[in-house]
């Protein structure tokens, strides 16, 4: 069961007496962050699939349809995404709307005043504690930039694929080294139904579909920016595939011959094996009897044992000094 993040605990301590329907909370870290009754009258703008106990929840790309006096932004790991989120808020909120932003010290919150200096006025520190800082400012009148996808061309041993991505999405602007190692070592006989889990910008699924066109590709991710990026990646490559937003495999009902993934191992800025452990355990219910799971992971992560707990055959098909590519299946 997830617990409230440290940032959420500081919000509860500092703002609980003031939170009402005039508040909008943006991009909470975990399901538990807004579970306390003090948040129950406020609205939430979500950027990932999660349940929410507040008054009204909006999942991007849907925008809130009200004007709020106060907005609370959970500072994301990606600073580029943080600025992008403020620009999205500017697209529907008036100048001088109060913006609170909160995060952990080791997540970069102490430098966030400088980060937002072009977008917020009157930035001041409100509170600190729980190894976190809460600040506030006011939206200024600088023009918000409309969001657009960044397009890149990624090369894997002479085979290229176009990728569209948004800030904070995995492999944004640069192909992750682990993903490259996985794509360089794909099996030659991919066919049938294929799932790209935690698809990010859709590079794995789109690459497979482009060079193994007979397969049927599905992609899923918990993050709504990733889902929209993957849809755009398929579009610019003129490929057909299904993309769904899903917390783990909860919305996946098909059976697959192949599952490929560079699975996430962070919740916020903390290492969290729970996501990948649950994914690996649940894979058995969506793989065919002779299906294969391919994942790539940092060498320091304890994936070999987790895979061996749920599959009776685990092979290392490729490795370098940073990553390992595993293939897991049942004989």
Automatic annotation (TrEMBL):
Monomer. This is Ribosomal RNA small subunit methyltransferase C. Keywords: Cytoplasm, Methyltransferase, rRNA processing, S-adenosyl-L-methionine, Transferase. The keyword rRNA processing applies. Specifically methylates the guanine in position 1207 of 16S rRNA in the 30S particle. Residues 59-145 form the Methyltransferase small N-terminal domain. CDD domains: AdoMet_MTases. It is found in: Cytoplasm.
């Amino acid at each position: 069961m997830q617990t409230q993040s440290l940032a959420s605990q500081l919000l509860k301590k500092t703002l609980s007496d003031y939170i009402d329907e005039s508040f909008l909370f943006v991009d909470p870290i975990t399901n538990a962050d807004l579970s306390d009754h003090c948040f129950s009258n406020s609205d939430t703008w979500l950027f990932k699939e999660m349940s929410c106990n507040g008054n009204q929840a909006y999942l991007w790309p849907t925008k809130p349809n009200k004007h709020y006096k106060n907005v609370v932004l959970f500072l994301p790991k990606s600073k580029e995404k943080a600025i992008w989120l403020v620009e999205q808020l500017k697209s529907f909120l008036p100048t001088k709307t109060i913006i609170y932003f909160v995060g952990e010290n080791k997540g970069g919150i102490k430098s966030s005043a400088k980060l937002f200096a072009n977008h917020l006025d009157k930035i001041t520190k409100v509170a600190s504690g729980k190894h976190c800082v809460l600040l506030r400012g006011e939206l200024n009148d600088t023009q918000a930039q409309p969001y657009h996808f960044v397009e890149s061309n990624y090369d894997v041993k002479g085979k290229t694929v176009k990728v569209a991505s948004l800030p904070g999405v995995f492999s944004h602007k640069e192909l992750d080294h682990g993903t490259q190692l996985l794509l360089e070592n794909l099996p030659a006989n991919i066919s049938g139904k294929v799932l790209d889990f935690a698809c990010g910008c859709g590079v794995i699924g789109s690459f497979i579909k482009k060079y193994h066109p007979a397969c049927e590709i599905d992609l899923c991710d918990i993050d709504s920016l990733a889902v929209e990026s993957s849809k755009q990646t398929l579009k610019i490559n003129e490929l057909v595939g299904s993309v769904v937003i899903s917390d783990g495999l909860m919305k996946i009902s098909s059976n697959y011959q192949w599952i490929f993934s560079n699975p996430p191992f962070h919740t916020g800025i903390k290492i969290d094996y729970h996501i990948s452990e649950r994914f690996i355990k649940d894979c058995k219910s969506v793989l065919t009897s002779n299906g294969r799971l391919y994942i790539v992971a940092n060498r320091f992560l304890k994936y070999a044992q987790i895979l061996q707990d749920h599959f009776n055959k685990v092979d290392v098909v490729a490795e370098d000094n940073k990553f390992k590519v595993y293939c897991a299946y049942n004989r």
